[in-house]
Write a structure and sequence with these properties.
87 residues, mainly alpha, 84% helix
């Protein structure tokens, strides 16, 4: 079973990934192809965070699983935005 501390730590890590990706997304919209490396790095971080959430959800309680699911949806939405929006 996942501990509350490990779930909170993962959630904090996901929040940081979202902040970094949002910065890269906004920069990508303004600078177009100037900073592709960081843009790709942000997408990779989102994918890793998503995979970590999936792994954690296997050992989480129902309440923790719901919290992880909501974060997973946020990551997916941002990832989709970054993929379909030209930068």
């Amino acid at each position: 079973m996942a501990t509350r501390e490990s779930v909170q730590q993962l959630m904090q890590q996901c929040e940081e990934v979202i902040q970094f990706a949002n910065m890269q997304f906004k920069d990508g919209q303004m600078q177009e192809h100037y900073n592709d490396q960081d843009y790709a790095k942000a997408l990779a971080h989102i994918e890793q965070a998503y995979n970590d959430l999936m792994t954690m959800s296997h050992s989480a309680t129902d309440a923790q699983r719901e919290e992880l699911h909501r974060m997973r949806l946020q990551l997916q939405q941002l990832q989709n935005q970054m993929i379909i929006t030209p930068h």
